[in-house]
Amino acid sequence: MPRTLVIVPAYVVNDGSMNTTAEIVRTIGRGIISHLINFGIGAEIQTGLNSHCLKATNCFIRK
């Protein structure tokens, strides 16, 4: 059975991280939403869900 690779729009929530996450995400052409400071996991998930609903994406993944 042949497999099909489907590339979907992806957005990353950067919860105040000062590492190179935002830069890496931009270089691969994906969207990023950054908090200025770390608000915690609840705010990170809420931001992701709000973005998911506003942009009408098909899935939400938390890693």
Strand composition percent: 15-25%
How many DSSP H or I helices? 2
Mean pLDDT score, rounded? 80
Poorly predicted regions are none
Q: Can you give the helix content as a percent range?
A: 25-40%
Structural category: alpha+beta
Q: Ends: how far apart?
A: 29 Å
Broad shape: globular
- How many E strands? 2
| Secondary-structure element order, N to C | EHEH
Whole-number total of structural domains: 1
- C-alpha-based Rg, rounded: 13 Å
Strand order of the largest sheet: 1-2
The largest sheet is:
2 strands, parallel
Describe this structure in words.
Helices cover 35% and strands 16% of the residues. The chain has one domain. The protein has helices at 21-27, 41-55, and strands at 11-15, 31-35. The chain contains 2 helices and 2 strands, in the order βαβα. It has a two-stranded parallel ribbon with strand order 1-2. With 63 residues, it is α+β, with helices and mostly antiparallel strands.
